[in-house]
Amino acid sequence: MKMFFKGRSISVLAAGILTAILLTAAAPAFAQSGQLNVVKPAIADRDLVIPLSELTADAVFYPVDIEGTRLEVLAVKAPDGSVRTAFNTCQVCYTSGRGFYKQEGTVLVCQNCGNRFRMSQVGVRSGGCNPVPISTANKTVTDREITISRDFLKEAKVIFSRWRRG
């Protein structure tokens, strides 16, 4: 049995081998892109509870609607194994509405200014063009989960008033 490709015939076996090679070469890209920029289902007007079992070296985004304002928390396991949390908005660019992050490879990129941040910077760097950190004083961490209170999320509404993730 023969298949025709642009006027040339190739055997089914050769076509199968070519397909396998192409899929194998592309597999890492497909696997990686499927894991990046995971946005969990939104919750409304309550504490945000993040199971530690969901966290890896790829950032996970947790939307929360507080009194009609959409906020988003990002959480990630840093290279040193520590768990990091921050608001998904840039400390400088938040007023633009586009000062939020998307993961590209192993870094977070501000969608307004283009600055790039390593996962080891999340939640510990403040000031400048960094994700707004959520300090240990503003969350409860157990061996199973991170809880960020509704009251603390409510205080952060102001930095999301013009936020337009999309």
Structure notes:
The protein is an alpha+beta fold. The chain has 2 domains: 34 residues, no CATH class; 123 residues, Rieske Iron-sulfur Protein. The strands form 4 sheets. Strands 3, 4, 6, 7, 8 and 12 form a 6-stranded mixed β-sheet that branches. A 3-stranded antiparallel β-sheet has the order 5-14-13. Strand 9 and strand 10 form a beta hairpin. It is globular.
Q: Roughly how many Å is the radius of gyration?
A: 21 Å
CATH class of the largest domain: Mainly Beta
- Ends apart, CA distance between termini: 48 Å
Series of H and E elements? EEHEEEEEEEEEEEEH
- CATH topology category name of the largest domain: Rieske Iron-sulfur Protein
Number of domains: 2
Low-confidence stretches: 1-34
- The secondary structure category is alpha+beta
Helix content percent band: 10-25%
Q: Average pLDDT across residues?
A: 80
Keywords:
166 residues; alpha+beta; Rieske Iron-sulfur Protein; 2 domains; 6-stranded mixed sheet; 3-stranded antiparallel sheet; 18% helix; 36% strand; disordered N terminus
How do the helices and strands line up, and which of them pair or pack?
Layout: E1 2-5, E2 8-11, H1 12-35, E3 38-39, E4 43-44, E5 48-51, E6 60-66, E7 69-77, E8 83-90, E9 101-104, E10 107-110, E11 116-118, E12 131-133, E13 140-141, E14 145-148, H2 150-155
Parallel strand pairs: 3-6, 4-6
Antiparallel strand pairs: 1-2, 5-14, 6-7, 7-8, 8-12, 9-10, 10-11, 13-14
